[in-house]
Design brief:
The structure holds 2 protein chains of 2 kinds. Chain A is α/β, with parallel strands linked by helices. Chain A is built from 12 helices and 12 strands. Chain A has one domain: P-loop containing nucleotide triphosphate hydrolases (Rossmann fold, 3-Layer(aba) Sandwich). An 8-stranded mixed β-sheet of chain A has the order 6-7-8-3-9-10-12-11, with helices on both faces. Chain A has a 4-stranded antiparallel β-sheet with strand order 2-1-4-5. By secondary structure, chain B is an alpha/beta fold. The longest helix of chain B is centred in the middle third of the chain and has 18 residues. The model of chain B has no long low-confidence stretch (mean pLDDT 90). The chains are: A alpha/beta, B alpha/beta. Chain A: This is Peptide ABC transporter ATP-binding protein.
Chain lengths: 345, 332
């Protein structure tokens, strides 16, 4: 598997009347072909802004001011609008949370679906239409030949999201960005869409960046996960390690605060006290300081960096705690060895 | 957990509640049909318990909740609060009853007047019902703010100055001002982030214990409903599919819809991802044109001929289910 995307320490800022506001700070992750990464976090943590930064879809007052986004051999952070136009919808495509607002209500499904196909794949009108019908069938839309001439308002939420997926995958992108694709849908429909996304991913080997706040969806879909908090990645690792052995206090808090149907009856939820700091008023040191049960003096003044905690496995966290723990461990280990030596001698 | 005892009298009884909205068309607004939002729903709520109502969008759970506090007038059927029918009591009596019945909404921002300070917003119900003087009301506001975990110096702030979780605390505080007996919680945590959801759910649980409240908890998130409810009503297309204790619903669901709903819920454990999942195809039919027979038959994997013709009634003693072929314990 070749490397497809490498996001390296990007910083996204928005210019406002009251000065620049940093929304995403030092976010890094990479993605191989066919791999799925989930960006998880609560509202305002910068997960959507990260994906919009990759796609150059930020509002006019926002821009990536530091870092690089390497996609294959191009740097998207510094790509021109003309270059992006070739990439968007072709190499990278995106689906959004609310499929109704991202479909044009005055154009038929077919008009919207064939636009990208004709633009990027140079199909004739008739070829594009039959290909679009094929795509609609692939995403499980019944009566695709009829639906193609319908307007979006005729479709249910789940069907609209299927149309969005058909549109996003029609040009066989290498990377699909899905921003909360199932959040607006009911659970039974969510299960349908997730199943569909898994099937299409396995067939086409498309890499996916899946943005969600639902750890259940993460567990179903992800190969690896980046947990975001207040504009930064605080923990990144593969999905099994994250759920079996989460390290960052925020990740731990998040896991314990979900009421899940498999929880035992009398288990009390562990809530994280306080709320997320505002982007205008970020703490100087660790951004989780105020809410962290393990906060130390050091966390107030110093900024922790995202560092791997063990060399052999890719598991990085942004926390001093583990450094301390490691020292403790080394100390204990040394003591133990010392004791063993004494015993043997 | 407060289990309903046989001898205990229900606090609230819902009997064959129906709420139809007319569909109007044309210049003279002829009624061409009805949206059957709630169609023959019955259940009892006992003092001190939490009744969860779950279902997908359009199943009528919110309409049911609103009917319980008479924000909707039922098309047919009765809502009896301590034996009094809310639809027929006089204005004056209803006013009195409203102090016992309160509701908390999903979006705490749109349910708070943006031009009023929090202190005034909270004092309003007391003053409107003439239950306290201004000074007494202020004292009460301080008290309640402390109970829900808001610093009392926030009294002079406006709603926009609070975060979502804090606003929901204000919503809860306002509902508590009149010391109600029953609170309808209509998706109170759906708009909140997970870490904040847990705070609000824990608060609701603690308040229930300390103030002896009865809740109707409406949500589409099964996790939250399981966490807080003693009994659960599962609704689909305006009808009750299943009603049982929380444990029964989760451990021995009898209705195929309940089973599918539980199964569709993503499990936050990646080791479970290859489990066999029962995914049902299709969408919820429109409540303006519900299917004949059992409303779930169009999506039910076990539907037989009788399901397409005859609607099953809600049967059972403690574990009620509306299905011709409920899931058999032995088979499952």
């Amino acid at each position: 598997m070749g490397e497809l995307l490498k996001v390296d320490k990007i910083k996204t800022e928005f210019q406002t009347d009251k000065g620049p506001v940093t929304s995403v700070d030092e976010v890094s992750f990479d993605l191989k072909e066919g791999e799925t990464i989930c960006l998880v976090g609560e509202s305002g943590c910068g997960k959507s802004v990260t994906s919009l930064s990759i796609m150059h879809l930020l509002d006019r007052n926002g821009s990536v001011t530091e870092g690089s986004i390497r996609f294959e051999d191009k740097d998207l952070a510094h790509a021109s609008e003309a270059e992006m136009r070739k990439i968007r919808g072709n190499d990278i495509s995106m689906i959004f949370q609310e499929p109704m607002t991202s479909l044009n209500p005055v154009l038929t499904i077919g008009d919207q679906l064939t636009e990208g196909i004709r633009l990027h794949m140079n199909y004739s009108r008739a070829e594009a239409r039959s290909y679009a019908i094929e795509m609609l069938k692939k995403v499980g839309i019944p009566r695709a030949e009829g639906i193609i001439d319908e307007y979006p308002h005729k479709l249910s939420g789940g069907m609209r999201q299927r149309v969005m997926i058909a549109m996003a995958l029609s040009c066989k992108p290498k990377l699909l960005i899905a921003d909360e694709p199932t959040t607006a849908l009911d659970v039974t429909i969510q299960a349908q869409i997730l199943k569909l996304m898994k099937k299409l991913r396995d067939e086409s080997n498309t890499a996916i960046i899946l943005i969600t706040h639902d750890l259940g969806v993460v567990a179903e879909m992800a190969d690896k996960v980046a947990v975001m908090y207040a504009g930064q990645v605080v923990e990144e690792t593969d999905v099994y390690t994250l759920f079996d052995n989460p390290k960052h206090p925020y990740t731990l808090g998040l896991m314990k605060s979900i009421p899940h149907i498999t929880n035992p009856d009398d288990m009390r939820l562990n809530s994280i006290p306080g709320s997320v700091p505002s982007a205008r008023n970020m703490p100087k040191g660790c951004r989780f300081y105020d809410r962290c049960p393990h906060a130390m003096k050091r966390c107030l003044a110093e900024k922790p960096e995202l560092k791997p905690i063990e060399d052999k496995q890719a598991h990085s966290i942004r926390c001093f705690l583990y450094e301390e723990e490691e020292k403790d461990y080394e100390k204990k280990h040394a003591e133990k060895q010392h004791a063993e030596k004494e015993v043997s001698s | 957990m407060n289990m309903p005892l046989d001898q205990e009298k229900p606090l609230l009884q819902v009997k064959h509640l129906k709420k139809y909205y007319p569909i109007k068309k044309g210049v003279i607004s002829r009624t061409v049909g009805y949206v059957k939002a709630v169609d023959d729903v019955s259940f009892d709520i006992y003092p001190g318990e939490t009744m969860g109502i779950v279902g997908e969008s359009g199943c009528g759970k919110s309409t049911t909740g609103r009917s319980l506090v008479r924000l909707e007038d039922p098309t047919a059927g009765q809502v009896l609060f301590q034996g009094k029918d809310l639809a027929t009591v006089s204005q004056k009596e209803m006013r009195k009853l409203r102090t016992d019945l309160q509701i908390i909404f999903q979006d705490p921002y749109s349910s708070l007047n943006p031009r009023k300070r929090i202190g005034d917003l909270l004092a309003e119900p007391l003053l409107a019902h003439k239950l306290a003087t201004k000074a007494e009301a202020e004292k009460k506001v301080n008290e309640i703010m402390e109970i829900v975990g808001l610093p009392k110096q926030y009294k002079n702030r406006y709603p926009h100055q609070f975060s979502g979780g804090q606003r929901q605390r204000i919503g809860i505080a306002r509902a508590l001002m009149l010391r109600p007996k029953l609170i309808i919680c209509d998706e109170p945590v759906s708009a909140l982030d997970v870490s904040i959801q847990a705070q609000v759910l824990n608060l609701l649980k603690d308040l229930q214990k300390s103030l002896n409240l009865t809740y109707v908890f409406i949500a589409h998130g099964l996790g939250a409903v399981k966490y807080i409810s003693d009994r659960i009503t599962v609704m689909y297309l305006g009808k009750v599919m299943e009603l049982a204790t929380t444990r029964e619903i989760f451990e021995h669901p009898k209705h195929p819809y309940t089973e599918i709903l539980l199964n569709a819920y993503p499990i936050p454990n990646p080791h479970e991802r290859n489990r066999t999942q029962m995914v049902i195809e299709g969408d919820v039919p429109s409540p303006a044109n519900p299917p004949k027979g059992c409303v779930f038959h169009t999506r039910c994997p076990f539907a037989k001929d009788i399901c397409r013709e005859k609607a099953p009634g809600l049967t059972g003693k403690d574990h009620l289910v509306a299905c011709h072929f409920p899931i058999d314990e032995g088979k499952a």
